[in-house]
Amino acid sequence: MSLPLIALFIAAFAFGTTEFVIAGVLPQVAEGLGVSVPSAGYLVSGYACGIAIGGPLLALATKRLPRKTLLLGLAVAFTIGQAACALAPDFTSMLLLRIAVAVAHGAYFGVAMVVAVGLVREDQRGMAVAVILSGLTVSNVIGVPAGTAIGNIWGWRATFWVMCALGVAATLAMAALLPRTTGSSTKHVGLAREVRVLARQQVWTSLILMLMLMIGQFGLFTYITPTLLEVTGLDENLVPWVLLLNGVGATIGVFLGGKLSDWKLMPSLITMLVLQTVTLAVIYAVSPYPVPMIVAIVIWGGLNFSIGTPIQTRILSWTADASNLASSLIPSGFNVGIALAASLGAAMLNGGYGYRSLPLLGAFAMLVAVIVAVISHVWEGRSSASPPVPAAAE
């Protein structure tokens, strides 16, 4: 792994940790700010909205800035935001600060993935995307448990001070390791062209695949703890270990997906979508049985992130000539999909279907994804189209 990619990974790890660690310290935050735990939950949904809406807008507004300058600015905003969160006097200020950091988060991942694929050869793009994505998975395996433990020992404000220190480390790493030739966003690409590239079938079908992937993942993952407790019958103390194994599987899956993306992207993607459909059906079948369920959950976690890598690599490849809007839509699409998945899962539960039915929702979504991916691949083959050449930078 090259040093510039390591710098981008550190920042991705920082952003990923601050997004997810709030769940680990939510009760303490609620008590400290004088609100109920459900009210404090808006710190999670507000962050997702900041990524989904603010990220693309910020990416477009800053598209003429040199990318290294922009990445450093986003890292500085992250660092200041963590310190401000640690000092937040009330819930409203905390919510607004979280949303501001989320806007930087959404812009960062869009820009960082474009920069990452520009730092490597064309046959290494998938692995470059995997490095950035691994920041999210490793944050769940290491960052979130560590941040939660710090919050439990020294209080939730200490968690954000540590995140501030991590932001300083990420800023210094990118300042030292990213090359100056990282350049800027495409100089002469207007908004109209940014929007037009989204009409390429490889792009909009990939966004559909992303949406289906999120339904297949978070329709169940949102309610994974009560599912493991009530359907599988696991002891409460074992649930964190299952989630840890799921995170380990996800981290392995990211890099597997990167390798497969650089080998045969669409055949690999279609195969993994089929395997994920089968895996979710297996989860439904074995959910009452602890050992098979745990094994299936680990495999499911690995496939989730192995599928995400080629989808994002494909979007970046087919929007290389106007990448600002499309790249920023990737984290937006993920968060919209997460929100939709959680809502669909809630609707099923409120409809009386029970936790065991949730994998069937995911299996149906993945079946739709298989059909869309096959049609898109055949369509692309018949058109003999090739990905665009990246536009010249300033």
UniProtKB/TrEMBL annotation:
Residues annotated as domain Major facilitator superfamily (MFS) profile: 4-380
Pfam families given in the database record: MFS_1
Key word NADP present: no
Chief location of this protein within or outside the cell: membrane
Superkingdom of this protein's organism: Bacteria
Keywords, in A-Z order: Cell membrane, Membrane, Transmembrane, Transmembrane helix
Compartment(s) of residence: Cell membrane
Signal peptide as annotated in the record: none
Keyword presence, Membrane: yes
Membrane-crossing residue ranges in chain numbering: 42-62, 69-89, 95-120, 127-146, 158-178, 203-226, 238-257, 325-348, 360-379
Membrane topology: Multi-pass membrane protein
The name this protein goes by in its record: MFS transporter
Classification of source organism: Bacteria, Pseudomonadati, Pseudomonadota, Alphaproteobacteria, Hyphomicrobiales
